[in-house]
Amino acid sequence: MSREQGLRYLVLALLVLFGRAASAVGQERPDHPELRPPPQLDDGWEPAGLEDVGIAPDPIREFLAEIRSGTFPDIHSVLIARHGRLALDAYFPGYAWDYEGEGFRGGWTEFGPETLHNLASVTKSVTGLLAGIAIDRGDLPGLDAAVFSFFPEYAHLSDEGKAGINLAHLLTMTSGLQWNEQDVFYSEVENDIVQLFVVSDPIEHVLSKKLVNPPGSQWYYNGGGTNLLGEIIQRSSGDRLDVFAQKHLFSPLQISDAEWIFIQPDFVYASGDMKLRSRDLAKLGQLVLSGGTWRGTRVVSEEWVQEMTRTQVPLGPSQGYGYHWWTRTYTDGSASISAFLADGWGGQRVMGFPSLDLVVVFTGGNYTQQHRLDEIVTRYILPAIAN
């Protein structure tokens, strides 16, 4: 073989090897650009590759494919952060929220990093954070403060039993006031939370309810209490709730696009339907996971975060309720893993796993069917945590 022929064969061999390598790379992630490190945006998040933070990519690749195939329907985004770095930032098209739409579906939307998403009752967990900030600042005197002390003009609605309702009861949903939110569907005007938008005086609507259980004795899901809490923060701080939130929570988190809705012109709906970007939603999880700090800045006290995410009311063997945040225990093999959650109708969820230094966020549109987020977490995400 001549020197010229040898060089030709060498070049051909290198081209074949290069082609195979390129093909392998293309086959590895043909439909999952999300498996690459998320984009670097000017929002405070530091991106990372999955393996850089100890997350095996294969289980993640598998459930992303299952979402696209429709096995896990109506998921709009999945984000994963570990060790304070954003490692997954995946989005899927779907229908935006619309209360008046069929199946609560609005327009078809290509969800992405800049899309504001309806958070449903995750809003309650935001209000829980704001309550802690207000207490830290001295705007609120403490959890044992009587609710009626903030509403002297409604003193005529109080009685010996109601007088014992305090801020802690609102935060743990144990006020004992009659409420039908779990018994009447949200599309029905008779639902008490819908009534807040119908009656002329939402505060009176809540405070006029009769006491059916002693305060602190029974848990019942009550967004009316959350809206009382929002109004109390507003009255005590002197700032409308959305302004207070922007000053003391969102601005320190580099969040500028939060949208609230209003029951009345100066009455912020504190229990539902605020909108955030998914990446900003993940910041709330990271804030709580970090004990109340974001990028080294203290936003809310560590003491509040600990109490807020501690089980204040047990709701079963693996679930409880804190101060407008849920607690849950997951099983990964033989290990039990504790988590805190902000949870909203349709599949809106912020999850923090302190022992894994892990934050997981979902948004979705499962308003008329049960989502399967826990299955994704237990089958794919937790097993993917390598170290």
Q: Unreliable stretches, pLDDT < 50, 5 or more residues?
A: 9-30
Shape: globular
Report the count of strand segments: 16
Largest sheet descriptor: 8 strands, antiparallel
Structural class: alpha+beta
The helix/strand series, from N terminus to C terminus, equals HHEEEEEHHHHHHEEEHEEHEEEEEEH
Beta-strand share of residues:
15-25%
Q: Give the termini distance in whole angstroms.
A: 53 Å
Mean pLDDT: 93
Kindly state the percentage of residues in helix.
25-40%
How is the largest sheet built, in terms of strand order? 2-1-16-15-14-13-12-11
What is the gyration radius calculated from CA atoms? Answer: 24 Å
Number of helices: 11
Quick structural overview:
Helices cover 33% and strands 19% of the residues.
